Give the backbone structure.
Amino acid sequence: MQTNFTLAQLADPDTAVSESILRKCVHCGFCTATCPTYVLLGDELDSPRGRIYLLKEMLEQGKPATAQTVRHIDRCLSCLACMTTCPSGVHYMHLVDHGRAHIERTYTRPLLDRALRALVALILPRPWLFRLSLVGAWLAKPAAAVMPRRLRAMLRLAPAALPRRSPVDQPRIFPAEGTRRLRVALLAGCAQTVLAPQINEATVRLLNRLGCDVAVAPGAGCCGSLVHHMGRTDESHDAAAANIKAWLALWDGRGPERVVINTSGCGLTVKNYGHMLRTDPRWSAPAARISAMARDVSELVEELGLPAGLARSGMPALTVAYHSACALQHGQKITATPKELLAAAGFRVADIPEPHLCCGSAGTYNLLEPEIAEQLRDRKVANIERVRPDVIAAGNIGCMTQIASGTRVPVLHTVELLDWATGGPKPPALTRVT
Ligand code: SF4
Ligand code: SF4
């Protein structure tokens, strides 16, 4: 694609990156076939190619974003299916991230939209506030029918009961069983610690069993992805810097050998810290170091290897529908590993139709664009239920919450099943199944 940026514009490092991305696009349109919003809406401007044109125009003109551009960029899930499909290697993720930051800087949203986004950016990354807001959500549920559409969507996603606080999410080091093989920092996360603390508990048990010291670092918190995808660059960079500092201070300053993440969107963001902070003289080198040691939990378990002769006696042979979260399959290019681990642990893994399509969760998307999100969820659930699974597994709390809101089949994190298969407790969600 031909571009017309001025030399002054190209002096900005983000614009220079976007220009090189834009030049790779050859307008072939292959990406439209796998874009969830184009598949649903059939509008070229809701396809990757259409959005790339809109972003090019907006960034080249250097003017405030228009309402039309904002509408179509907001509808993008950042699922990155287009990056998997594109034969020309167009890095849509960095382009749309830049576009969103430009929108956030230059566009004044309607008041309600602004308020809602500010609320989401304030609450979700702070577990104590999120916990408090869920109590508020229960109180507000009876009045849901008269509330605006987006608030209704938020109330609908609030869980029926709040799990207890987990000791695993407090800063400390959980020692390896037997000989230590690796020092691992765990990103405890933010919303996940409130919604499903059992995921971190299973992760710690499994990694301890496989010979890892696992540390939850004091001072580490949200990875920054929630605000990053809303174009709030400064806040996301601050979150990244706080985590990097906290992790590198572990083990008396020796730092970890791996950073493990069990939420795929957060994992993608931590792997992107090096890019996010590349122009910051203080943080660029530490950020690149952290990104290089970041691993999804499935990658790390594959590296360590599951123990031979798993304790499967007496366990039922369950059929698992594995939902591949977008940030894992399209963002981190991790596709086979979780399924292979589940199969090695003795589960029957069923392939679901249209595995490339997003479930509609996409970070805060199901809160901000609930109508499209609901259509995608229903399509995903229908595809999953077609294979008649006993249980659904996914590597992302967002997908788990979204899918669980549309099905009665239990939804677990992959790591909960692997922990169970290697000697951990049976996940409570499976009581009904087994
Ligand atoms: S990230 Fe997903 S929704 Fe956005 S343009 Fe690409 S395929 Fe479409
Ligand atoms: S597939 Fe790649 S090159 Fe083709 S239009 Fe989409 S982004 Fe551009």
Notes: The two ends are 56 Å apart (CA to CA). The mean pLDDT is 93.
